[in-house]
Amino acid sequence: MAQIIESIPNISEGRRPEVVEACVDEIRSTPGCTLLDYSSDESHNRSVITYIGDAKAVEEASVKLVKKAAELIDLNHHEGEHPRMGAVDVMPFLPIKDCTTEDCIELSKVVGKRIADEAGVPVFLYEESATRPERQNLVKIRKGQFEGMAEKVQEPDWEPDFGGRRIHPTAGVTAVGARPPLVAFNLDLDTDDVQIAKNIAKIIREKDGGFKCVKSMGFEIEDEETGRKYAQVSCNMTNFEQTPLYRVVETVKFEAARYGVHVTKTEIIGLCPMKAMVDCAQYYMQTNDFDFEKQILENHII
Amino acid sequence: MAQIIESIPNISEGRRPEVVEACVDEIRSTPGCTLLDYSSDESHNRSVITYIGDAKAVEEASVKLVKKAAELIDLNHHEGEHPRMGAVDVMPFLPIKDCTTEDCIELSKVVGKRIADEAGVPVFLYEESATRPERQNLVKIRKGQFEGMAEKVQEPDWEPDFGGRRIHPTAGVTAVGARPPLVAFNLDLDTDDVQIAKNIAKIIREKDGGFKCVKSMGFEIEDEETGRKYAQVSCNMTNFEQTPLYRVVETVKFEAARYGVHVTKTEIIGLCPMKAMVDCAQYYMQTNDFDFEKQILENHII
């Protein structure tokens, strides 16, 4: 497989396994598409599906998924803790290998148009695909949720990018867009003073003047086994090529040192592209001339 | 592709491109086998071919390669700087993914027997596949080279493992065996005192009481562009799971510190399995619970 694009759609169903399975089957049955993972959250009444393939395979699987979800999920009868506006609520496309963000933006437009035409579900382009600044942020698009969407799309600024101003009566609207791969990354400290984690989180996150593409918060964590409490800096690395993980590790270390505090361990949640790890190995080992594409054996197979 | 075995045979031809191409074509034409690289050395009159696949594909490609090389290469007319005993001189099998050293040992026996039966080339099993301790070392097997081999195989201790005591009249004998993937790894120092590199090399290598599966030497290197001379610790990491690269980096750093000397950069030569790099990232970033197989996205595709 030369090109790899990853899609991680969220569907508004997390309680009826047969509906989730029927949706996931649309991915499984698409040639060239590989299902990596799926999981449901009952309290959110929402499921996350992860699959990869080249642009054509991901396009097919994504359109089929929206059609099936629109057939089986009725948001008029949907309850859950997580805000939502569509049967498929959000569908991001991430460039993993041999493709650019631009390729994923192009794919999001192709898929967006097909979803509107073939499933009758209007589409907002979001994140990197957004056609207006206020549409980059999914939270702003989703504000008002399914119940308020029929009215919202009548507003001058909120006509969907595809499908016109009439939402699907049961499946609502869907946000489709390109975004870089995200790595969820936590650093545990040898202190139970959560304020230290909060201070460090504020230093490293983009919002408060820290590193670009880093979102972070400080939490108090209780170890389930021992009951011991400790502080944690929890990060979402939204573009690990812009700000690599090692830069956050080293910054958290030297900022923690001010308090005599150390990083006890770090944790990557879920899937992680190998480049995020290899970039860190290259920094620490000073392999400055290493050619990731050519020298990693596996890159010749994928 | 689930299972990956890598083979890196050396053939005794580096001057006639048409012969090298004909041999490489045997790899190219084997379904399920991927040619990664090949290169020829004129002064050695020798070529290295690298390919991967599952056991069945590597078996087929390897047997075809020996047949073709035996047909086209006549060691009675071979001259070159590198010692050699066969048209295919040596054929190692390396476990890369979803297979063990034992799988590669098994493969080496299957391929060894087929080479003897189908190409008429007697085979010595070497390295991990060796049937006697003195056959682990290729240099000991090859001693006497092609010219002395007809006589050597008559000695009580030197009957080949497959094919009996009569060498192939033009293609000699071949060594086949399993070995772990090797990473060639150099560390440059900010000194021109080669003795410091030699001292450190001696500390880290297995032979002199250092780390298992590390071979190392100290060299003086002259930068081709600037003419500046510096000392280098050059390592062959013959099993990066036994002794990971970061352990060598950190040891070279603290041993160099005794002389006020630092590592300026390191270099990995050629191909490197991603796990060698990810293991280092895990150490430096303290991601101690990271699950390589499950959490590296690419492991779900390969």
Instruction: Calculate the terminal CA-CA distance of chain A, rounded to whole Å.
Output: 5 Å
Largest interface: A-B, 42 and 41 residues
Class derived from helix and strand content of chain A: alpha+beta
**How many β-strand stretches of chain A?**
11
Helix share of residues of chain A?
A: 25-40%
What is the domain tally of chain A? Answer: 2
Describe the largest sheet of chain A: 7 strands, mixed
Strand content of chain A: 15-25%
Describe the structure.
Chains A, B: One of its GO terms (cellular component) is cytoplasm. Chains A, B: Its EC number is 2.1.2.5. Chains A, B: Residues 3-180 form the Formiminotransferase N-terminal subdomain domain. The structure is a homodimer of 302-residue chains. Chain A folds into 2 domains: 4-178, Formiminotransferase-cyclodeaminase, Chain B, domain 1 (2-Layer Sandwich), CATH 3.30.990.10; 183-300, Formiminotransferase, C-terminal subdomain (Alpha-Beta Plaits). Helix content of chain A is 34%, strand content 24%. The first copy, chain A, has helices at residues 17-28, 55-72, 101-119, 138-142, 145-152, 194-204, 245-257, 274-285, 292-295, and strands spanning 4-7, 10-11, 34-41, 46-53, 88-97, 123-125, 174-178, 183-189, 214-222, 229-237, 263-269. In chain A, the strands form 2 sheets. In chain A, strands 1, 2, 3, 4, 5, 6 and 7 form a 7-stranded mixed sheet that branches. The interface between A and B is large, with 42 and 41 residues.
